[in-house]
Amino acid sequence: MKLAEALQERADLNRKIEELRRRLGNVVLVQEGEEPAEDPAELLEELNAALSRLEELMAAINLTNCRTKVGSMTLTAMIARKDALMIKLSAYRDLVYTAGQSTSRARGTEIKVKALLKAGDLQKTADKIAKEVRELDNLLQETNWKTKLIEQ
Fold first, then answer.
1. Which residue range forms the structural domain that includes residue 126?
2. pLDDT tens digits along 26-44
3. How many CA atoms lie less than 13 Å away from 86 in the CB half-sphere?
């Protein structure tokens, strides 16, 4: 199995687990004398099996990410870099928005507010960060499809 396939299965399992939790919540209590729409014991068994598989996948994915290198960086380091860049990009986009706000004065005696950072310069930096995020994400996706999942 490729790493990308394991990541897809993990996402599917997370959705399935949430669905099973919801379904269990709907049938765990019933009015006395009534029957639930589904058997809670069967749903619980299915939930436990999905959680067990998720645990196996998460361990294998983490192990694979730690051991797989692209250049001098592990996949784990690349993911951390991408996550940090996404936070940085969000901060820069917020700054661009704030610095781009124009304020007007009705009279010359009113307080004038001005941006201390130039929106254009901030936008250029945000664009560079966005490009790096895209390139890093592309490299991660490519690597995920080329890398065999390490299972123990």
1. 71-152
2. 999 999 999 999 999 999 9
3. 9
